[in-house]
Design a protein that fits this description.
There is one protein chain. By secondary structure, the protein is mainly beta. Helices cover 4% and strands 47% of the residues. It has a six-stranded antiparallel sheet, with helices on one face. The chain has a four-stranded antiparallel sheet with strand order 3-2-5-6, with no helix packed on it. The two termini are 14 Å apart.
């Protein structure tokens, strides 16, 4: 327990304008990886704008390690088709977690991460103090594909007995 910093809950909210990989649509799902951890959402059948609203939880030991996201189209008789990938880091979120935020008003935007060529953000990502938690909303533009974005919501879970941030 003393080698982890905490848990990162990732809510995979939805996808937008995902690439068509079957005749009329796709059956998308998302894989999230951090180091050796690999988590997967359920498959949403025949939908290029799927709503997963699914929460996945990663154990964070190294906050400098990128989190990788891959979207696939589930196929029955062949290998699943790639529908793009993205990655993001939590360095700014960890920086905010080290701040004294107890006296900050609910809903306050504490920091913003700007979309640029070095990250996969489709738009600026706000880090907000919400109901006693640090939350980050983001929309990632998928790479290595003709189109598609995925919306995520992150929040940090402190684990009693974990090493300090």
């Amino acid at each position: 327990m003393d080698d982890i910093l905490g848990l990162l809950r990732i809510k995979v909210v939805r996808g937008f304008k995902l690439a068509k990989r079957d005749a009329r649509s796709s059956d998308p799902y998302v894989i999230v990886r951090m180091g050796k951890q690999k988590l997967k959402t359920r498959v949403v059948k025949k939908n290029l704008n799927p709503e997963w609203n699914e929460e996945l939880t990663l154990t964070v030991a190294d906050p400098n390690q990128p989190i990788k996201l891959q979207v696939y189209d589930r196929d029955t008789f062949t290998l699943d088709d790639k529908m793009g990938d993205a990655e993001f880091d939590i360095k700014e979120m960890v920086r905010v977690l080290k701040m004294e935020l107890e006296n900050v008003s609910n809903g306050t935007v504490v920091s913003k991460v700007v979309a640029n060529r070095e990250n996969c953000l489709a738009e600026a990502s706000s880090i907000v103090w919400e109901n006693g938690k640090v939350m980050q909303n983001m929309v990632l533009r998928l790479r290595n594909v003709e189109c598609g974005e995925v919306e995520l919501q992150l929040h940090w879970i402190h684990v009693p007995g974990s090493r300090a941030l």
